[in-house]
Specification:
two-stranded antiparallel ribbon, four-stranded parallel beta sheet
Length: 178
């Protein structure tokens, strides 16, 4: 980043586990569910220069919508997310490596489809309904820009960290608006 970044606040809306694995140095972790639930409190704390980041941009766009509804109109979304920033040589902090939630969703969905198709062939044709249900779920996910499977996977033990932020800790760490 170049120019005056003194009052720039970078909010990473990924899960605490994703943040722990890789994040932009100096960014603040406010997972999207926390941001969604406490948008007004967060908006009071933020100044005018806010950059939202996630893995790819989807969750950051959702966060921008929430903040805009609370009066923070100038929030920007970092194109390509944290991985693109790291690939471009940005200053990042690397921790324990985990699969991103998006990769976990692809693995789970793909595995369930294969299980449904194989089960339909060797167990009962009704098992094929599993593959159809996953297809419907993925289409709904794309149409609504949400991901129920991702939300479920984010609650799994391997996606938890000892430092799961609370509203108080996440918002309290942010610098006060100038």
């Amino acid at each position: 980043m170049t120019g005056n970044t003194e009052d720039l606040v970078i909010i990473d809306v990924r899960s605490a586990a994703e943040f722990e694995s890789l994040h932009i140095r100096g960014s603040y972790n406010v997972p999207l569910p926390l941001l969604s639930e406490h948008t007004d409190r967060l908006a009071e704390r933020l100044g005018g220069r806010v950059v939202l980041v996630c893995q790819s941009g989807v969750r950051a766009e959702q966060a921008r919508g929430h903040l805009a509804g609370a009066g923070v109109d100038g929030a920007l979304v970092l194109a390509g997310g944290v991985p693109a920033f790291a690939a471009a040589g940005g200053d990042v902090v690397r921790g324990a490596q985990r699969w991103s939630l998006e990769r976990q969703v692809r693995m789970a969905a793909g595995s369930l489809v294969v299980t449904g198709l194989a089960g339909g062939r060797f167990v009962s044709p009704k098992v094929r309904l599993l593959a159809g249900a996953i297809g419907v779920g993925l289409a709904f996910s794309a149409a609504t820009n949400t991901c129920a499977m991702g939300q479920a996977l984010s609650k799994m033990p391997w996606n938890r960290t000892a430092a799961e932020p609370t509203a108080q800790s996440a918002i309290g760490r942010l610098p006060a608006a100038r």
